[in-house]
Design goal:
alpha/beta; 23 strands; Rossmann fold; 2 domains; Metallo-beta-lactamase, Chain A; eight-stranded mixed beta sheet; seven-stranded mixed beta sheet
Length: about 525
Amino acid sequence: MQLTFIGATHEVTGSCYFLEAAGKRFLVDCGMEQGPNHFVNTEIPVPPSELDFVLLTHAHIDHSGKLPLLYARGFRGSIYTTYATTDLCDIMLRDSAHIQMFEAEWKNRKGKRAGKENVEPLYNMDDALGAISQLVGCPYNERITLAEGIQVRFIDAGHLLGSASIEIWLKEDGEERKIVFSGDIGNKKQPLIKDPQYIHSADYVVMESTYGTRSHDRVIDYEKSLAKLFQRTFERGGNVVIPSFAVGRTQEMLYFIRKIKAEHMVQGFDDFPVIVDSPLAVEATTIFHEHHRDCFDQQAMGLVDQGINPISFPGLKLSVTTDESRAINADEKPKVIISASGMCDAGRIKHHLKHNLWRKECTILFVGYQAVGTPGRTLVEGATDIKLFGEEIQVNAEILVLPGVSGHADNNGLMEWASAFLIKPKQVFVCHGDDESCEVFADRLEKELKYQAMAPYSGTVYDLKAGEFLRKTEGVVVKQQTAKQMKVSTVYQRLLAAGQRLLTVIRHNEGGANKDLAKFTSQINNLCDKWDR
């Protein structure tokens, strides 16, 4: 009964944890690292083909983004998650595969002119579709048996549509242990989705610490603030451009704008157009409405019960095709443009910035976190010009940030979640935060709640039955790979994974008919004869 820490240890992204219990091997999350990568992550201890299943907390790519790679390397088990997360993963993993393939193609076009070798995408669309086919939807609040000695329950984490904390009961040799994975804990009193549910019992807890050292800004009257901003910008004859994450934040903005329009809060511009220019956001908005019964909060459900769609309204236009996207800036009527990506580092938002940043009558409104090094962060910090598509664009537009909007609980919200346990857990493992945040928050848990808490590095192994560390590791700083090393690594890893999957299939055929085994053996030998150099 062992827990091995793989990713999101002293880092904010790349969540991944390996458990071995009751004769099964499985993961909780399999996320992609995004942004700066400071520490080396250990590999999953077994070939992906030998994993029995995966549990997924939610659809964000830093928790789900490597599932297609897991499939590419031979994993063929089920991926258990909530119903809403299965639908969001359907669009988000396809979108991630598209980005991987597009970026590899772009690098190869550029590299070809410089005589460089081709770069391989991390995974392709077939891998994403394979992973999507393995998704199994589960309800909230229902204890489910996955195997003898393993039961799970998904609890609403209030972070994203379908997001969950996961309770896992493990039983071996007559002894049971309960471990809870917090997932990303949501911020209370946010629009649309419910507040996070609290869990009251656990032997062990693995919890996030994204905002472990920070408090959110004071929550404001969002609709009133947005209405004033719209009024001021439209009277100048400008557009309001909102760089927004396609899943979650875009739907929250639509929720606010619906009320602004319904209550005529922008004088003289009642029919102002609102355009969502992101195919992913358009699909996500449909999924949000489909799962309202499971995930919407009481206020949003009150609107639904009145026959009102809380994230739709007259004047809302959904832009999907590139021609529709181009037409947006050809129309001079003042409007609100919501487009991805939220940090302005990719997607259609860059085109809208190109057309609106230089116009002093326009407003660029940031409604989410801007990571260091992104164009969004550069604009928020007061850049006077920015390069887009090789062209220097002067920043004349009004640059604003909407305070208080966050899908993550702040340090006080995290403490509130942690303090809900009625009996102290034996051990709390603090992950999913930067180096400082993990350490500071673990220390706070010890001082204020008297919990036994620590922040493990990747490769740390803990025996859940004995209640002791089998191995404690230190962080290994990442060394940058060359493009050639990355290409060799990616291609060879796929080959190695195929070989490991073949061994798994051979073991599964033990006890089969001699005739079938002989045929299988002959096929393998023929393949080896062809490639043995």
